[in-house]
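Kindly review these C-alpha cells for lecture notes.

. . .
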Amino acid sequence: MAKRVKATILFATETGKSQDYAKTLCEIFKHAFDAKVMSMDEYDTVDLERETLVLAVTSTFGNGDPPENGEKFGAALMEMRHPTTSVEDRKTYKVRFNSVSSYSDTRKS
C-alpha cells in the first residue's frame, strides 16, 4: 500500500463550531490522507516547514476578531511575512472563506 500524504487540520473557535467542522473534515480526509486535527494554540508553527498539507478552519467574532485560541498562531504567521523568508515565497496556499451570519439584515426585506 502506498504511503499516504500527511494532512494537518488546525482549528480556532470561540463556540466550538469550527472544531466540529475540523473534526468532520478530518474524518473525510482520513479516507485518502494521513490526517490529524488539532487546535491552533497547540500547534508549533515551526512545524509548518515540514508539512505537506495544512488546512485551517477558523471563525471570527465581534468585529472580525480571531478566536482566542487562534491569536498566537495568527501572530506567528504574520511574523513569517518577512520579505526574504515569507510564506508566500516558499509555499503554495489557497484561502477559502465561508460566512454564515446569524444576524438579520433588514435591508433585504
Summary: The chain has three helices and three strands.
